[in-house]
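Here's what a typical entry looks like (CUTA protein):
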Amino acid sequence: VVTLSLLLYPVLKGLALQLHSAITGSYVSGTHSIAFINCLNEQIAKDIARAIMDKKLAAYVNILPKSSALYFWKGELEESSEILLLVKTRTSKIGELSDYVRSIHPFEIPEIISLPIDQGNPLYLKWIEESVPRD
């Protein structure tokens, strides 16, 4: 019984939070995320952003202007300029988003990282919910 309870705890907690959210209309922290994706140039960034939106993997993608980057690659210090995408989506879509971006991104190892959204404008968070289909 203890083992079963421990195994089911994450599922039951998630269901309880969703039920609470549905009843109270409150936001459940971490339901949505922001993914960061680096791109070599603006055209690649626009192409990847459009592909993400066409697949309905995000509600909104910001394309931030060129920035400088320093990083180690194959043991050497590299310097380049990059364009950064900020992708707003459901946390449940991050795995699918990451897989898809890796399949179309020209980098051997693209930066695709995400952070959960803790709080925000409830109407905006609801809009993300409505814009990105459930799994």
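The CA atoms of residues 18 and 28 lie 7 Å apart.

More examples are in the samples folder.
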